[in-house]
Amino acid sequence: MPFLPFSHILKIRKELRGTDAEVSTWGCDNYNDRAKQWSDTCDVDIGAVVRVSSVEQVAVVVRFSTDHRIPLAVKGGGYSTGGYSSAKGGIILDMSNLRRVHVETSSHMVIAEGGALWDDIDVAAAQHDLAVVGSTLGQIGAAGATLGGGYGWLSGQYGLAIDNLLWARMVLADGSVVTTAADQNPDLFWAIRGAGQSFGVAVELAFRAHSQSNPVYAGTLVFSEDKLPEIGFWFGFNLQPSSIRCSIVVIVFHNGARAAGETFFSPLLTLRPTLINTQMLPYDSLNSILNVEDTLIRRSDFTGVDTAYHHEWIAGHRKRLSGSNIALPLDIDFVTSIYHQFDEFLRMFPEARDSRLFFEFLPNLQIRKVLNDATAFASRGPYYNISSLFRWQAASLDERIQFVQTDMMDKIGTLAGIASKPNYHVLTHGTGLYANYAANAPVKAVFGENVSRLQEIKTKYDPHNTFGKWHNFDISA
């Protein structure tokens, strides 16, 4: 279907008549704002944007899309740079009105609606001295990040977000609503923990919460190139606002007192950073250190939110997120070569100066305690994620910049990743690709030996591939 026919727009409006769902199409005053994507590379002509405010409305839109074979994209936080939140000629299911969070203190459980951002969850939980394993960015959608795995600041203590997912309510392709947990629809629960975007719309997620009454020591340290051989932890490369030379940025986090944090990170602090921006923070503010702007209005344990992005956060930039992996021990000559390649890229494309590349050395022993076939998530192994977010303005540069990014990620994975190590085996050591960073990668490369089981479950729950926007388990091929 090249574009949503007007007759279908009339039908979906009719099916939602009497509800507070909002259908925006060409000619509506709010169409452009609601169709807008975080990355300009994902802006395409949309047939309709349906902003829903109930599970029942979600079910109507999903069933309608399946029955009429209309391309469907689910937009929670809208953070995707791979086009997963957009559907050319089709329907965007806008979840931004489904962002309430409820905290059950007696059971240490946090229940979030499917459109909630991590900021929503962090703030609600913190009011009860609790925390949830979430993302390292507060502005992104919790459902999408979780269903793909979910790395966060607390992963070293408690594992991935999916390892702390207790149950989820899902709207399936036929519009039915089911609860899935270890003892309810266990095959679906296995699949959504790592590949969930391909199986339905998560309208509610229940997370195990952990006690977190203390503030945390966190922030950023900036170093010059000559300090690279002595730096570990989580570090990356970017341009500081007033600099013309690529800097090394280290993000530090210690779940404890300042003195303990400074002692732990003393090997870095004694290297005399050019900039130190560390402080004691309440945990619910931790994710803001990588955010552009805090858009959350803080209220009780049911959060009210400002659904609009900050202008600088969304408009006027083309963005692409990509990833790889790197294994220890680090070859400092190789890492230095990547630094110089990234620095050269920034010099060659000055408008890409806001791009960044991170070596995410988050502790992963807790993550690796879970086997790679215990859930759909198949990237648990003795390596660490690499993430790169490239950002530019001119569409004419798309192909060149994306080529540089892909080449850099492939180079790191091939020469310094887990696949370069002797006796490497996917089932034992993981695929090395984090699904949320691996846009357009073959599903076998991301999910490894789990692909065949995922395709079987896909046949059961989504036989017409309604949810094929993310990693596509094409069962008709």
From TrEMBL:
Domain of life, per lineage: Eukaryota
InterPro entries given in the database record: BBE, FAD-bd_PCMH, FAD-bd_PCMH-like_sf, FAD-bd_PCMH_sub1, FAD-bd_PCMH_sub2, FAD-linked_Oxidoreductase, Oxid_FAD_bind_N
Annotated family: Belongs to the oxygen-dependent FAD-linked oxidoreductase family.
Annotated protein name in UniProt: FAD-binding PCMH-type domain-containing protein
Presence of the UniProt keyword Oxidoreductase in the record: yes
Cofactor(s) this protein cannot do without: FAD
Gene Ontology molecular function: FAD binding; oxidoreductase activity
Location of the FAD-binding PCMH-type domain: 42-212
Pfam assignment, any one: FAD_binding_4
Presence of the UniProt keyword Thylakoid in the record: no
Sorted UniProt keywords: FAD, Flavoprotein, Oxidoreductase
